[in-house]
Amino acid sequence: MKIKDIAKLAGVSIATVSRVVNDKPGVRDEVREKVKEVIKEHEYKPNLIARGLSSKKSNIIGLLLPKFTAYYTEQVDAIINYCNQKGYRVMITSSVGRFEGELKNLNMLYKSQVEGILYFVGKMTEEKKENIEKINKEIPVVLLDQAIEELSIPAVLPDNYGGAVKAMNYLVNSGHKKIAFIKAPYYDLEGEKRYRAYQDIMKRNNFEIKEGYVQGSDYSIESGYKAMENILSKSDQMPTAVLASNDGTAIGAINYLREEGIEVPEDISVMGIDDIEIAKHFIPKLTTVKQDLYYVGDEAIKLLFDYIDNKDLKAKKLIVEQELVIRDSVRNLNDKL
Amino acid sequence: MKIKDIAKLAGVSIATVSRVVNDKPGVRDEVREKVKEVIKEHEYKPNLIARGLSSKKSNIIGLLLPKFTAYYTEQVDAIINYCNQKGYRVMITSSVGRFEGELKNLNMLYKSQVEGILYFVGKMTEEKKENIEKINKEIPVVLLDQAIEELSIPAVLPDNYGGAVKAMNYLVNSGHKKIAFIKAPYYDLEGEKRYRAYQDIMKRNNFEIKEGYVQGSDYSIESGYKAMENILSKSDQMPTAVLASNDGTAIGAINYLREEGIEVPEDISVMGIDDIEIAKHFIPKLTTVKQDLYYVGDEAIKLLFDYIDNKDLKAKKLIVEQELVIRDSVRNLNDKL
DNA sequence: GTGAAAGCGCTAACAT
DNA sequence: ATGTTAGCGCTTTCAC
């Protein structure tokens, strides 16, 4: 069934059918009803590809992810919901970490005539920056996870600096002075902000960052376990608390401590960042800083549509606040045990 | 840049450009090189929408999910990877649980001329069955999560019955006789199979399913907590082990037990199903049955392509085996403590 | 081996 | 208010 068939069946021209399909004015109610009837009876469904070609508007939003992991589900969920509800379709792409794949996928979206791209940056590189800048000249792009400081491209980011500050202040207010830190991978610019927050708060309080207190991770639970091991083995003074860059590494750290017979939070306090689902069910329930990822996704897609509607919009960088979630993994040293 | 511009620039016809773009024969090497050069220089990228209309082949696969949750990430990851690598794009859709939304999304995929649909069924209803049957007459559909017994539609399913049997046998071999069960939600047909396995194994061993031993859940951690509470309060004889329908409810159950001061696995053993990421990091490390979801997704997309290539293929229902993962949450009653 | 031309199924400008 | 028609950017016969 195509528009031509419906036109013939309804005894009108294809232009008229097109008008009623698209709810456009200029058709007598009587005729409109008749056409609608025929459409319904024959279950006519317009070919969106043809429509796209003709109208030069695809009604498709492109999504570009590095590897597809649980971290993205809420954001992607928000994006899909918003688009589907608005009558937009979303084309999703993931690059399994390899950069060539990412470039290929970016081009695929471009060739698909998507109206805008939501780009989850993941690991930022110079090459990537160039490509993003280039594509953004043709198609509106909104960045997630990481912004490009020097470029005027809209982005929505969690307030990682502010969130880490909140975490650190909570630790400090709970009486902790010897605080260790599990770092994000080096390429995560946003992770660097958390590290800066850690350093700033330590400095502001005149707490010394002892040797061995800062250990790296790749955000995995396993790397958190390893980092905790390093903190203990490489510090001559045991910390009373450790702030992990995400909940996963916090969980890994706790696991290591337990295996060593060190109680959390009695002996050492551990704090995470993210508030992933398991955080509130882990034992001890994880004290962390919440990042509302559904909200982040929602804001990002809205920003993208703003940007599509008004390409000249000043590129806006939206910072989403994080909020402290106090649970059981941090001990208040001011209290008696 | 469109094909016409390239043709002019290269001094050939658009047909020739089309041939080289699509790596088709019938072009002198010399000319082919020349055209490629021009394409490269001007970064010409073919408009896939136009190609789709002209060739009547969209190169798009549709994905239909109920709500988008962490459970789907691995499967979706596998699907996207496979498609992207094959030069296919994937259009993703999620229905936030509401059925009207699902029907709308199904039509959206249809109108988008997708070449095949991967349908994560979630909750099965009569209405849904009809719609699936109908759409499958036009577009190849492969079902995930749940099959429709009476319809000849390909599906790939985890072997939920077999998996639960493995879990139960492990419990039995570990000396457990008083085994409780946390059920899946009623609408999950696959969950029912796990329940049947539980009943069958209990019966085969002449173990009594005591009152209160079977409690419902909605798969959430919270509902597992609640189910465990019910098991304890409604049974006059405490079980020595409980099999949960998924890892989430197993974790909820363990949390409840710990709060009650009941040790796992010393006092009560708890076993899950799924092997979600946190399972191996939870304390105690969760004994469970592994369902390789990446594999499931991979098989599903392969099956879909088979189906697309050969629509008359006898609809195949692929059952993916599950495997026992022994960790620390089940006690062997045959051992001394 | 190469090009001209006829669509693909729509939308949108232009007539009427 | 309705119809005619010219594209949209490609692929694909069919001639040459």
Task: Explain what the structure shows.
The structure is a homodimer of 337-residue chains. Chain A has 337 residues and is α/β, with parallel strands linked by helices. Chain A folds into two domains: 60-158 and 293-320, Response regulator (Rossmann fold, 3-Layer(aba) Sandwich); 160-291 and 324-336, 3-Layer(aba) Sandwich (Rossmann fold). Chain A is built from twelve helices and twelve strands. In chain A, strand 6 (179-182), helix 9 (189-204) and strand 7 form a beta-alpha-beta unit. Chain A is elongated and about 90 Å long. Strand 2 of chain A pairs antiparallel with strand 2 of chain B. Chain A binds a DNA duplex (16 and 16 nucleotides) through helix 2 and helix 4. Chains A, B: Residues 1-55 form the HTH lacI-type domain.
Write a brief structural summary.
The structure is a homodimer of 337-residue chains. In chain A, 44% of the residues lie in helices and 14% in strands.
Please compute the radius of gyration of chain A using only Cα atoms. 26 Å
Q: Compute the separation of the termini of chain A in Å.
A: 76 Å
CATH superfamily of the largest domain in chain A: Response regulator
Main sheet attributes: strand count, strand direction, barrel closure of chain A: 6 strands, parallel
Number of domains of chain A: 2
Elements of chain A, N to C (H/E): HHHHEHEHEHEEHEHEHEHEEHEE
| Helix and strand composition category of chain A | alpha/beta
CATH class of the largest domain in chain A: Alpha Beta
Helix count from the secondary structure assignment of chain A: 12
Shape of chain A: elongated
Oligomeric nature of the chains: homodimer
> Largest beta sheet of chain A: what is the strand line-up?
2-1-3-4-5-11
Beta strand count of chain A: 12
Mean pLDDT of chain A: 94
Biggest interface, chains and residues, is: A-B, 49 and 49 residues
GO molecular function, one term (chains A, B): transcription cis-regulatory region binding
Protein name (chains A, B): Transcriptional regulator, LacI family
Keywords (chains A, B): DNA-binding, Transcription, Transcription regulation
InterPro entries (chains A, B): HTH_LacI (IPR000843), LacI/GalR-like_sensor (IPR046335), Lambda_DNA-bd_dom_sf (IPR010982), Peripla_BP_I (IPR028082)
